Amino acid sequence: MRRVTFDLDVLRSFALGMELGSFAKAADRLGRSTSAVSAQLKKLEDQAGTPILRRLGRGMALTEAGETMLAYAHRLLDLNDEAAVAIHGGELEGWIRLGLQEDFGEALLPQVLGRFARAHPKVRIEARIARNAELLERISSGRLDLALAWDAGAGSAHLERIGEVPMCWIGPADEPVGWHRDSGEPLPLVALEAPCLLRTAATAALDRAGIPWRMSFTSASLAGIWAAVAAGLGVALRTTVGLPGSVHALAHADLELPPLPMLGLALHRAEAEPTPAVARLADIMLQSLQQLSEFGRA
Predict the structure, then answer these.
(1) How far, in Å, are 10, 103, 189, 211, 261 from residue 258 at the CA level?
(2) Between 20 and 30 A from 204 (CA), which of 74, 138, 192, 257?
(3) Which CATH architecture has domain 94-164+264-296?
(4) How is the chain split into domains, by residue range?
(5) Tens digit of pLDDT for each residue in 201-218?
(6) Matching CATH topology for 94-164+264-296 and 165-261?
(7) Domain 8-88 has CATH 1.10.10.10
């Protein structure tokens, strides 16, 4: 098999075009002509030795090989950018106070902290896992520099709405939920202690659908929620982010539960002009979020 060295500049055009949903938009963003980007895509297919794009209506879609290429393109570009920052941005120092939802603790935090620490070993990060209301209060009072929180309409002075994830009903992975809509029994609910954004969303959706419910288990932590659902104590409403193997998302038809909307996600900054260290950490968080399979750009 011949050795192929992919062109990072070509991969960047390819990845940006898929992110924006248009290679014309990518060309504009990169300051190139559309024909130049088309030539880059042709070069990438020649290097890959197989088509990576196919016609779909008036647009383009990824082939199976294209999906594989896009995943590797993100990884190669991230490493390239990390190397550039490590060489040219290693002088960053200071202290960053980061807050985020417990849902992202395992799904996002290790990757983000690892990438940032390798590039900026002199910056100290203090991470706080908390609920939405506390995160927003700490951002507003200046006790956090950066916070990733659900977008429930309550904002802060300097927020960036970055995307949305699906809300879903969660049940145990290894056994059926012991409840049916025609059983005459209220649906047992598992939720975080009030006030909780997703707890309120669950009860409101059930009330609108005319489904009776009872609170069967409450917990102060997400770990307690997963344990209770896995044990069969009830159904929870969460997002698809960070689900452990002991639980899974239920299809609406499984229990005839009401469908649920998407839930927005926002990145909040304490200052309009953050320090270079805070700005760099925010960039890494956004890049890592784009790679989560559950996450969709708004």
Answers:
(1) 45, 23, 14, 9, 10
(2) 138
(3) 3-Layer(aba) Sandwich (3.40)
(4) 8-88, 94-164+264-296, 165-261
(5) 999 999 999 999 999 999
(6) yes
(7) yes
Pick the CATH number of 165-261 from 3.40.50.1000, 3.50.50.60, 3.40.190.10, 1.10.730.10: 3.40.190.10
Q: What per-residue confidence (pLDDT) applies to 294?
A: 57
Task: Check residues 15 and 253 and name the one with the higher pLDDT.
Answer: 15
pLDDT in tens, 158-208: 888 888 888 999 999 988 887 887 778 999 999 999 888 899 999 999 999
At 36-67, the pLDDT tens digits run 999 999 999 998 889 999 888 777 889 999 99
Decide if pLDDT at 103 tops 80: yes
